[in-house]
Amino acid sequence: MKITEIETFAVGAGWKNWLFVKVHTDKGIHGIGEGTLNGFIKTTEAGVHELKHLAIGQDPRRINALAKRMLDSVSLDGGHIHRTVIAAIEVACWDILGKSLGVPIHQLLGGQVRDSVLGYANGWYRTERSPEAFLDAAKAVLAKGFKAFKLDPFGTAQGFISREELSFPTPSAGPYVTGCQRTR
Q1: Is residue 179 helix, strand or coil?
Q2: Which of 50, 91, 120, 170 lies most in the core, judged by the most C-beta atoms within 10 Å?
Q3: What percent of the chain stands above pLDDT 90?
Q4: DSSP H helices in 56-162
């Protein structure tokens, strides 16, 4: 089995972009890998196309040898971009190996560890930056069945919000402090 082509797919998700790769083989089996490095999607995508000549013609089932070839064939390490590109292609090759053997990838990596994995909602908080709007958005996430969610109430203000703006309001300042203790 030989790799014949590698395609890239940049997918916009509104608040973040993802990069997927599709590795094709001469046996009609393809694998999907993901190489998202937030803020560097086009750069990572270009990196895939810069390195794919090192993968085309190679056996995708020789995953470690292929990863080493892509790492060692570049005279200087390309850091995060380089390693993310290699990882995306490598994951697609694991997908190909699993498909070629008719087993899920977890069987190739030592077996299933758990029956389920907890997840959390992320990116749901694109709303007006007020306590009321966040509360409404959080209620909507909970109504969808999530038990946990990640949020960033300060958005792009991180790093330049004044100390006063970050301090907890006192209980007399409003209804938003319930069960919180002010610490110094």
Answers
A1: coil
A2: 91
A3: 54
A4: 63-72, 79-101, 105-108, 131-143
